[in-house]
Amino acid sequence: MTPETMHYPVVEAVIDRFARWLKHRRDIAESCNCNSEEYARIAHDLNLSTAELNTLVRRGNEASDELPKMMQALRIDPEAIRRVEPMVMRDLDRVCALCEHKRQCAHELAAGKAAEDYAEFCPNADTLGALVKKPH
Asked: What number of CA atoms fall less than 13 Å from residue 26's CA on the CB side?
């Protein structure tokens, strides 16, 4: 194998993680470039408080990665919900992104117990429970 074609998975993973971190930092810096009035208007347009918008920007694009996994555990099709109830899906994403129970959620998902226990910790439990009972 020549040096040009050799792969270093650990190094590549570190580089990818650093690139995602750098992009996230740029996103944060970009959001800070607008004045407080403009920032408040953006938050209002998104139906968020400025504190919620700050939190969402700080947490980045991966802040609601658990949601599709939780929906899959509950046998809910996220794409069907996105098509039929786009505002519900948007709210589920927002609530998941702002959730303070990420570690417990990830643990429950990994253990395969999320469908049994989600109502105990998930701030989306009521909505997800209604979607489980509702035919899509």
From this structure: 6
